[in-house]
Amino acid sequence: MKKIIPFAVILLSLVSCAQSTPPKQFSEATKQEKVTDLQGQELSFGDLLKRHRGKITVIEIWASWCGDCVKAMPKVKEMQAAHPDVDYVFISMDKGLDKWKAGIEKHQLTGDQYWVNDEKGMKGSFGKSIDLDWIPRYIVLDAEGNIVTYRAIETDFEQLNATLKTLK
């Protein structure tokens, strides 16, 4: 029994490390997920990504009701000021179009704005497709569209800024 426990711990560690390896690209299923732009036009997440191809891109998943998202807004704006050559994409998990648009206006968000119209919110198909377990969530893409940072949260701005500097 004493020999089995260390073996089980090592095995569990290896499995958890393998599962936490971030993807280099979004899956085809994720690219098929739908988002809505400010004009009310629905497009696939893949088409959204194509719009930013050739540019370093920061994607923020957020919601107007999210206290941590609101608290992080000044840091987001500082990051935008420090890295003006980066594209910023905001994807809202708000439950309603009106709340989403009011949140953009209230927080004076600049960048491309999209809304996930899914009554299940974070637990819906888009959220599941990107393993969304917390918001705000930041994803960084290099100019080729490769995922460089897959899971950053509101406490990771030092890491985000350092990553953006290395991509220039």
TrEMBL record:
SUPFAM superfamilies: Thioredoxin-like. Gene3D superfamilies: Glutaredoxin. Keywords: Cytochrome c-type biogenesis, Disulfide bond, Redox-active center, Signal. Residues 24-162 form the Thioredoxin domain. It is found in: Cell envelope. One of its GO terms (cellular component) is cell envelope. It holds the Pfam family Thioredoxin_8. It comes from the Bacteria. Transmembrane segments: none annotated. GO terms for biological process: cytochrome complex assembly. Residues 1-18 form the signal peptide. This is Thioredoxin-like. It comes from Flavobacterium fontis.
